[in-house]
Design a protein that fits this description.
Elements lengths: L1 H9 L8 H10 L11 E5 L5 H10 L24 E5 H21 L16 H7 L17 H10 L24 H5 L9
Antiparallel strand pairs: 1-2
Helix pairs in contact: 1-2, 3-5
């Protein structure tokens, strides 16, 4: 039964996702194939993924203090110690649909490219580009950063971005929504060091 369900899902998800493993994990957590199935997995990526992520973090780091740092010292650098992939089938499908809608809309508008370009799109490092994979230029897809607490990361990983919690950590200057930054240093202003560092 798992293989039949997995085959149906595989077409909509990235090829490297192991849908059978995700379904098995759901069953081990007490889920059943007849009840609502949440396909979410956290996957530690190989050690080789640290270097390309470090290069992206370094490239997108601007050594500038803003009021959002709230008096905390600006680090010289952010260091990537581990890369963990979060694979959430429902969010991926929703994102893919939104991306396709944006691409369709952009084609109809015949608009110019982003000026200035988002910082992460300007990284000129083959290793990083290869690791991150291609982006949908028609949808103006870009890599961005989200700074939050370690506890919120666990919640986002297990239950998605929750708009009803928007602004509960540091406010919502531009209204309710999920905030992202093109600079790793800006996202760091909203992150908090966990008790284990």
């Amino acid at each position: 039964a798992l293989r039949t369900v997995a085959a149906g899902l595989r077409a909509d998800l990235p090829s490297e996702w192991d849908v059978c493993e995700m379904l098995s994990a759901n069953n081990q957590k007490g889920g059943s194939m007849s009840s609502s199935v949440r396909l979410v997995a956290t996957v530690p990526l190989p050690a080789e993924s640290v270097l390309p992520m470090q290069r992206l973090i370094d490239y997108a780091f601007i050594r500038k203090t803003t009021r959002d740092r709230r008096g905390h010292e600006l680090p010289l650098r952010l260091e990537v110690s581990e890369v963990i992939g979060v694979r959430n089938a429902a969010q991926w499908c929703e994102y893919s649909q939104a991306r396709a809608n944006i691409a369709r809309h952009e084609c109809q508008l015949d608009t110019e490219s982003l000026v200035p370009e988002v910082r992460t799109a300007m990284v000129d490092d083959a290793l990083t580009k290869d690791f991150l994979g291609p982006l949908d230029e028609q949808a103006r897809e870009r890599w961005l950063f989200h700074g939050t607490t370690a506890q919120a990361v666990q919640g986002i990983t297990a239950k998605d971005f929750r708009i009803d919690l928007a602004g509960s950590h540091r406010g919502a200057l531009y209204g309710r929504g999920v905030y992202f930054a093109e600079c790793s240093s800006k996202a760091d202003e909203y992150a908090e060091e966990s008790s284990d560092g």
